[in-house]
Every structure is written in C-alpha cells, then in structure tokens.
Amino acid sequence: MPRTLPFSTHPHQAFTAGFYRNDDFDFDVRIALGAAAFGASDAGEVLSAIASVRENDHDGWFAAWVALGTRVRAFADASAAAGHDVSASQAYLRASTYFAVAVNSVAGLEGDDDLLPTFRSHRSAWDRFVDTTSHAAERIEIPYDGSSMPGYFFRPAGEPLARPTFVMVNGSDGSIGSLWTLGAAGALARGYNVVMFDGPGQQSMLFERGIGFRPDWEAVVTPVVDFVCDRPDVDSDKLALYGVSQGGYWVPRALAFEHRFAAAVLDPGVVDVGASWTAHFPKKLLELLDDGNKNAFDRDMAIGMKVSKETAREWSFRARPYRKNSYFDTVMEVRKYTLDGVIDRIDTPLFIANPEDEQFWPGQPAHLADAVAAPVHLCDFTAAEGANYHCQPMARLLTDQRMFDWLDETLAVNSPLPTN
Length: 420
Fold this sequence. Notes:
Blueprint: H1 14-17, H2 23-34, H3 43-50, H4 58-81, H5 85-105, H6 115-132, E1 136-144, E2 147-155, E3 163-169, H7 184-189, E4 193-197, H8 204-207, H9 218-229, E5 234-244, H10 247-255, E6 263-267, H11 275-278, H12 283-290, H13 294-307, H14 309-319, H15 327-334, E7 350-355, H16 364-371, E8 376-381, H17 396-411
Parallel strand pairs: 3-4, 3-5, 5-6, 6-7, 7-8
Antiparallel strand pairs: 1-2, 2-4
Helix pairs in contact: 3-4, 4-5, 4-6, 5-6, 9-10, 13-14
C-alpha cells in the first residue's frame, strides 16, 4: 500500500502514514473504521481493541478482534433480553463486523482450527441483526447447481411494492455482513430492495460446504435473477447488479451472458484477476509457469514459502477458495479469471469505481471502461477526498452518493420511493 509519509510521523497523520506497517492490518483497520458510517462499527471500539496489538502480532491481532466481537455480542444479547431491540440490532451488527475481521485473521495463525467456529460466531451475530433490525428481512435459499445458495432479501418498510432491486455480489473474502456497509444500507434508504448471498467459494459455501470459486459467474448470477424475478415485490425491469473487490470481475463476466440487468456497479472494475497474483513474481517463476513446468514451479514456490512466513500465510488465505492442490495448479486456475474473449458482449450500462492507490488491480478499472462498448461512467476516487485505496474503505458514504445518484438516473428512479 503506497504511503507518502514515514510511519514515525505524528499520529494525526495516520490516514497517510498508515495505522500499521503491516499492510493487511492497516487495511483491515481502515475497513473497520469505514463501517462506522453505517453503524457496523464504532470507531472507539476499533481503536481501543487494536491499541495493544503489536506490529505483525498475528495471534494478538486475532485475539483482539475475537474479544471485541465477544464483548459487543454480549451487549447485544443483554439488550435483546431486556426488549431493547434497537440497541440489540446495532450491537449485533457491530459484533458481526468484528468477528468478520477475526475470520480473515485466521490466515495469520499456525493452523485453521479457529476458522469454522469464528465464522459461525460472525454469522450468528449477523443473523441476530437480521432478526432484530427494523428493516423487512428474510432468509432465502437460491436454487443453484442441484442445491442452493444461502442469502438474504431486504426491502424497505411498508407495503411490498414492486421495486428496483439491488443484487450484490461479494468479493473473494468478504463476509456477507460487510455488504451492509458496501451498499445494502444505502440502497434500502433510497427505496431499493436488496439481495445478498454467498456464492461458490464465498464464506458459508466454502467453509461449511467445501464449494470453491468458479470463473463462469453467469452460472451463479442467472439463477439469482430467475429467483428474484419470480417475486411480486421486484420490478424486473429495474434490476441492478453490484460487485465489490473480486466481484468487480465476476459481475462483468456474468453480464457478458446475462442481459436482464438494467445497470451495474463495479467497485472497482477488474479485467484480469490473475494479475494481482503474478505481478510480483520473479521472471524465472513466470517463465516456468508459461512453459508449463509444474514440478520446477512448485519446487521454487515451496522454497519461497519457507523463507517468508508472511508470504506463506497470504498464499494459504488467497488460494483456499480455488481448491487446488499445488502452487502451479492454483495459479493456472486463477489465470482463467479474465474477461478476454467476452468483454465485447457486455451491453449493460456500467458505473466503474476507479480509486487512487488501488493495491490489487491498478489500472484495470480504466482498462475495462475503455474496452467495453456499453455506456460507462468511470468514477475517480482520490486520496484528497479520503477515498483512496481498494474499494474506498473510509469513504463509503461518498461512494454511495456517487453510485446511487448514477443508478437512480440510469434506472429513472425517483429517490426516495414511497414506503407505504
């Protein structure tokens, strides 16, 4: 993550200097603080929880987020038991955020024993938020590949009118609860229904069912559209699709085949997922990969993992959803996640977020905007606005303003819609 100031600078410059030297820790803090805009965290809780966690102390980092989630969950349960539903709902939402950080933090531990119980703590807190929120909410099961995908359908209060509907596609590692701050709350406030779900390789589908990613996301999105369009409270002419992080690849991939969406938001736009994996590979490794020399590639990668525990942790975390047994096979699988050959099929109007200092897919939002024939609004977000880095973690209100203003205009929606 680029920084313009030394880490030893004054604490009031943490936004530019970083909360931690460890890029993952720093980015997680930014995400958690940004969630406060929608009540999914409290800034004081976040900052007090990390105050004693040292640089690169992965055990302490994990423990701090679990402790915070546990403490806030207890607040929620106490409020719920006393009949204070608003307080309970708010605390359940915050607890789900803190446990979600802990879930991803398991990658920094020596083993995965804590993964499933921590995930279930997160999902339990999120489900209690769903149970206690004042928003109309229901759990759904979307038919998929002979089984189903778990999800949630939210609609604004009042009569179940046929409304514009905001379908949300998550990224590679985000919790379903994180979608609340990434557009769900903002959509509901503007009169949209919201659909969110775990697709293949995402959280519950991966952790509890062992189902990994797939590149052909149209096979995921089309069943969602079929499911949504069968509902009387959905205006099937005003469907919008949103993709965050790696969802910025899955959404345009799906749109190349699924044409029932009237508009889509990419946060950010992604053309080639594999570029974030191979950008820092030494030339020799790339040559082994391109030559198909699996044995030599796996050998050299294994040596590198022994040298750097940080690299090994990151690899374990990022490779898990691809469900491959070797370094070579994993990278070759990731290389399938590209829009090459299908990008010219996209005809849905697009809003593409283009944040300054994008860490994972720099330059790709603009590349995608230039490559598609569909109408595109490429929206820059800058450090001067407090809106830099991947998915603008500390500027989600600004992101909502820009993407929903565009979406309202594109769908010809008068915002807010009637609620009764």
